[in-house]
Amino acid sequence: MQKVGLLGGTFDPPHYGHLMIAEEVLEALDLDEVWFIPSNEPPHKEKSDTKVEYRVEMLQAAIEDNTNFKVNQIELKRSGKSYTVDTIKLLREQYPEITFYFIIGADMVEYLPNWYKIDELSKLVQFVGVKRSDYQLKSNYPVVQVNIPGVDISSTLIRERLSEGKSIRYFLPESVIDVIKEHQIYGSK
Fold first, then answer.
1. Rounded to an integer, what distance in angstroms lies between the CA atom of residue 129 and that of residue 132?
2. Does 171 reside within a domain?
3. Within 13 Å of residue 117, how many CA atoms lie on the same side as its CB?
4. Nearest 10 degrees: Cα torsion 31, 37, 43, 49
5. What are 79-120's pLDDT values in tens digits?
């Protein structure tokens, strides 16, 4: 049976932190692939102002050199909030031969009790919590822990740096920077 990690997010923009998490979990759990799932409307934060097609193009550019990484647009095909339980149900229907591992950050592990239909969801998918030194990863739900090196990069930081005219070099792949410049995303030129 194939083993696939799922990494959801707005990816606005995707950066080296996302890629490192995916690679570390892929290796630690001996997964076959990691699928990046851009969200349409995340339930725990504001909807992205960046056009969906730009976020997908940036994500595809970010992973283009890794054959174990794929983009799955399942949440972009639905309207309304992107609840993980709905996504997992659909993926299990579409791919019954795959065992899925849902990758979440340490901050989300602590937030699990607040997730929509968490009791049902925890029976449908194995959670994988990526552990950083500043979080304990304590949860009443089954969570496999994977330690990752600390990289303090966020999409918010990158957008702020762009708005301030600062460099984002070494924060994300050059291919993503090219997409940002081509479409003048975040007002960049």
1. 9
2. no
3. 13
4. 150
5. 778 889 999 999 999 999 999 999 998 878 888 998 999 999
Name the CA radius of gyration of the chain, rounded.
Answer: 16
Whether residue 142 is preceded by a cis peptide bond, meaning omega within 30 degrees of 0, is no
* Residue 8, domain CATH: 3.40.50.620
Between CA 40 and CA 87 the distance in angstroms is: 11
Cis peptide before 149 (omega within 30 of 0): no
Q: Which domain holds residue 112?
A: 2-150
Asked, for residue 12, whether it belongs to a domain, the answer is: yes
φ, ψ (nearest 5 deg) of residue 95: -135, 70
pLDDT digits (tens, 9 = 90+) for 121-178: 999 999 999 976 666 778 888 899 998 887 788 899 999 999 999 999 999 999 999 9
The total of structural domains in the chain comes to 1
Whether the model pTM is above 0.90: yes
